[in-house]
Specification:
Ribosomal Protein S5, domain 2; binds alpha-D-galactopyranose; about 20% strand; about 400 residues; 11 helices; Alpha-Beta Plaits; 4-stranded antiparallel sheet; about 40% helix; alpha+beta; 13 strands
């Protein structure tokens, strides 16, 4: 049975009372969604363009202030607790989920935002380690909760930047800004066309789910994002910029290199660096073309841009893997699939597929059967919708729960 946000929020609140007692005043409930990137992969840290959606899989967190300076956490999913003092926050390898909460608190305090101790319960239905940004959702929910509890004002984009900083500096994952951005600023039924340099964004309407669905297939293979490959790609892109600067002195990032300039000067780059840069330069172009295709309701074009994106991530950027390629190949041979590609950092995780509504059931059957046959893994499949970004959970009359 799939529970709605309000029903889950009630369960979280009940758990909160069981763990921390019924007293202690108001409980503030916050939700923050995970994300699926439709196209624009590994472009965010190259100052480029992305087109993610916030999804209807989310973290729910309940907060209540304490009188001392302790933070007491309870994870509903792991049935485990963790406690730390506000003035002695340390990264710890056990209870690793707690580091995302700690990181945000640490960075906010570094900004001289004064916080009191608090009790927190977390619950989430974003699959962990599947590349759907469960960690960014914890960070964003924490930031929104801190803001509601302490009453400080801050621009949403500033909050996003602090959450990214928490992930970069406290957790130690050198991610771009996309995940935290869309988790806070995503829009219902829309994708977010985000310029990762200016942080200007435009919500782009998605096709009606009565006609076309966004279906995500989980390969069941998990690879650590903090692993060296992600950071290595970042360095390779930097190296590409240094080389290209000799011909194009005005560029600051790969975002500044148009496809035609790359065609002219790309050959001067070392072979691997050239392929990495080719992916980024062309992927940025694919994102802008995807936005145009969506606006013109040219969904076949959008689907083929998704297919091209996967091919490039596989051959040029080399962040795919056997299971992702298999999942994509299976999907592309199913009737009613307009486009299929890996989504997120890669090295495992999920694929995103555009599937005609009437063909979704058959799609699921075929993927499950064929993927199992080759890998002996039962894949999870999620039919997702674009949701609103993070915020406080209010009941239907608008009162706080
Ligand atoms: C991860 C990072 C993002 C982005 C993607 C790849 O999800 O957190 O910032 O770089 O990989 O597009």
């Amino acid at each position: 049975m799939v529970l709605k946000t309000g029903e889950r929020a009630q369960l979280v609140k009940a758990k909160f009372k069981e763990i921390f007692g019924a007293g202690g005043g108001k409980i503030t409930l916050v939700r923050a969604p995970g994300r699926v990137n439709l196209i624009g992969e590994h472009t965010d840290y190259n100052d480029g363009f992305v087109l993610p959606i916030a999804i209807n899989q989310e973290m729910i967190m309940a907060f209540q202030p304490r009188l001392d300076n302790s933070v007491c956490l309870y994870s509903y999913n792991f049935s485990s607790s963790h406690q730390f003092p506000l003035d002695g926050i340390k990264y710890e390898t056990e209870e690793s989920w707690a580091n995302y909460v700690k990181g945000v608190i640490y960075i906010f305090q570094e900004r001289e935002i004064s916080l009191s101790g608090m009790n927190i319960v977390l619950e989430g239905n974003i699959p962990i380690g599947a590349g759907l940004s469960s960690s960014a959702a914890i960070e964003v929910a924490t930031a929104v909760g801190l803001q509601l509890l302490s009453g400080f004002t801050m621009e949403p984009v500033e909050i996003v930047k602090l959450c990214q900083k928490a992930e970069n500096e406290f957790v130690g994952v050198n991610c771009g800004i996309m995940d935290q951005f869309v988790s806070l600023l995503g829009k219902k039924d829309k994708a977010l066309f985000l310029d990762c340099r200016s942080l200007d964004y435009e919500p782009v309407p998605l096709p009606n789910p009565e006609h076309l669905r966004i279906v995500v297939c989980n390969t069941g293979v998990r690879r650590e994002l903090s692993g060296s490959e992600y950071n290595k790609r970042r360095r390779e892109c930097q190296e590409g910029v240094s080389h290209l600067k000799k011909r194009l002195p005005e560029i600051k990032a790969l975002r500044d290199v148009p496809v035609r300039d790359f065609e002219k000067y790309g050959d001067s780059l070392p072979e691997t660096i050239k392929r990495r840069c080719k992916h980024i330069v062309e992927e940025n172009e694919r994102v802008t073309q995807s936005v145009a295709s969506l606006k013109e309701s040219n969904l076949r074009r959008f689907g083929s841009l998704m297919n091209e994106s996967h091919q490039s991530l596989k051959d040029n950027y080399e962040v795919s893997c056997r299971e992702l390629d298999l999942m994509v190949d299976i999907a592309r041979n199913i009737d009613g699939v307009l486009g299929a590609r890996m989504t997120g950092a890669g090295f495992g995780g999920c694929t995103v597929n555009l599937v005609e509504e009437g063909k979704v059931e058959r799609f699921q059957e075929i993927v499950k059967e064929k993927y199992w046959k080759e890998t002996k893994i039962h894949p999870e499949i999620y039919i997702l919708q674009a949701e609103e970004g993070a915020g406080e959970i209010l009941n239907k009359t608008g009162e706080k729960r």
